[in-house]
């Protein structure tokens, strides 16, 4: 399924960065266990870099940013519904009357 919004794109990017950081840290541990300190240092560096990317994405996608993006997307949906309602013939709309007390 294609990504439908900026918020969804960020969610995927955050998941990818988190997964990469965890996997690199696991590989560093394995290399350390096997006495490959040189490779352990490389994987630890990669884990740290991915963690920094993750922190940057999380900071960039604070609640305010996501809320604004979600509100903009909701407005797009509202605009679409209004256009659809405007395109509906009047007699169908006028046939439903709601009385409030």
What is the structure about, briefly put?
It is rod-shaped, with a radius of gyration of 25 Å. It has helices at residues 6-33, 37-60, 63-87, 90-94. It has 101 residues and is mostly helical.
Report on the architecture of this protein:
There is one protein chain. The chain has a domain at 6-62. With 101 residues, the protein is mostly helical. It has helices spanning 6-33, 37-60, 63-87, 90-94. Residues 91-97 have low confidence and may be disordered.
Separation of termini? 46 Å
Strand segment count = 0
> Roughly what fraction of the amino acids lie in strands?
under 5%
Please provide the ordered H/E string of secondary-structure elements: HHHH
Query: Pairing-aware structural class of the strands and helices?
Result: mainly alpha
Average pLDDT rating: 80
Q: What's the tally of helices?
A: 4
What is the helix fraction of residues, given as a range? over 70%
**Coarse morphology:** rod-shaped
Radius of gyration equals 25 Å
Uncertain runs are 91-97
* Largest beta-sheet characterization: none
């Amino acid at each position: 399924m294609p990504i439908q919004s900026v918020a969804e794109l960020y969610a995927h990017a955050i998941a990818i960065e988190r997964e990469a950081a965890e996997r690199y840290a696991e590989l560093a541990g394995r290399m350390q266990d096997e006495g490959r300190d040189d490779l352990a240092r490389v994987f630890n560096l990669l884990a740290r870099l991915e963690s920094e990317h993750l922190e940057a994405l999380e900071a960039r996608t604070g609640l305010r940013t996501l809320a604004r993006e979600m509100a903009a997307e909701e407005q797009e949906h509202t605009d679409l519904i209004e256009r659809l309602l405007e395109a509906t013939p009047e007699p169908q709309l006028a046939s439903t009357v709601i009385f409030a007390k």
